[in-house]
Specification:
The structure holds two protein chains of two kinds.
Chain A (H helix, E strand, L loop, with lengths): L2 E5 L3 E2 L5 E8 L7 E7 L5 E7 L6 E3 L7 E6 L4 E6 L8 E9 L2 E6 L3 E5 L2
Parallel strand pairs in A: 2-11
Antiparallel strand pairs in A: 1-3, 3-8, 4-5, 4-9, 5-6, 7-8, 9-10, 9-11
Chain B lengths: L3 E4 L2 E4 L4 E8 L7 E6 L6 E5 L3 E2 L7 E6 L2 E7 L8 E6 L6 E2 L3 E5 L1
Parallel strand pairs in B: 2-11
Antiparallel strand pairs in B: 1-3, 3-8, 4-5, 4-9, 5-6, 7-8, 9-10, 9-11
The chains are: A mainly beta, B mainly beta.
Chain lengths: ~120, ~110
């Protein structure tokens, strides 16, 4: 069974940092591109970033460029999101999802909650 | 950035109703269009990919159509478990963008 499990969400002050993780199991993690999507409370889904299967290609949304860094460790089937200079508007549930070519997001994690507040 | 405009943003419907949700892209995205269902407190679940391909395990009352800039999600015979929010997504170009969602609630 394919499983994605996010962790690392917490309450953090504005300007602070946080590192999210997404652990994959039940599939060949290194064969899939991985994506982070977030959702502010009561709001819509927002695509954040994608990293290719090998990690050689990375794309960010403008809203996080220069502040967030996506990375992966294929040997441990884990995806990361390093979030720096956090703002109140970064508050939300962060999901990871997998994709294979143009076959996007058939499996998602359960999400991890990030709250940026003083 | 490709804008995805969903309509309606919310609707009330009854069990058994036929429901149609539309998603319009600000430019041609071919069939790089996916539909998701999301229930409160849960992760989205994929319903339709490639504009019209039904995800395995999804009931056949769900169907998708369209190409280019206009797409439709239809639910034929709404069931109680279908009351949820539905999102479209385009992956023709980066940044990948979602529609604004359509909340389907009980009339």
């Amino acid at each position: 069974e394919v499983q994605l499990l996010e962790s690392g969400g917490a309450l953090v002050q504005p300007g602070g940092s946080l590192r999210l993780s997404c652990s994959g199991s039940g599939f060949t993690f290194s064969a899939y591109a991985m994506t982070w999507v977030r959702q502010a409370p009561g709001k819509d889904l927002e695509w954040i970033s994608v990293i290719s299967d090998s990690g050689s290609r990375i794309v960010y949304a403008d809203s996080v460029t220069g502040r967030f860094t996506i990375s992966r460790d294929n040997s441990n089937s884990t995806l990361f999101l390093q979030m720096d200079s956090l703002r109140a508007e970064d508050t939300g549930t962060y999901y990871c999802a997998r994709s294979y070519g143009n076959d996007l997001y058939d499996n998602w994690g359960q999400g991890t909650l990030v709250t940026v507040s003083s | 950035e490709i804008q995805m405009t969903q309509s309606p943003s919310a609707m009330s419907a009854s069990v058994g109703d036929r429901v149609t949700i539309t998603c319009r892209a600000s430019q041609d995205i071919s069939t790089y269009l996916t539909w998701f269902q999301q229930k409160p407190g849960k992760a989205p679940e994929r319903l339709i990919y490639g504009a019209s391909n039904l995800q395995g395990g999804v009931p056949s009352r769900f169907s998708g159509s369209g190409s280019g800039t206009e797409f439709t999600l239809r639910i034929s015979g709404l069931r109680p478990e279908d009351f949820a929010t539905y999102y479209c997504l385009q992956h023709s170009n980066y940044p990948i963008t979602f529609g604004g969602g359509t909340k389907v609630d009980i009339k």
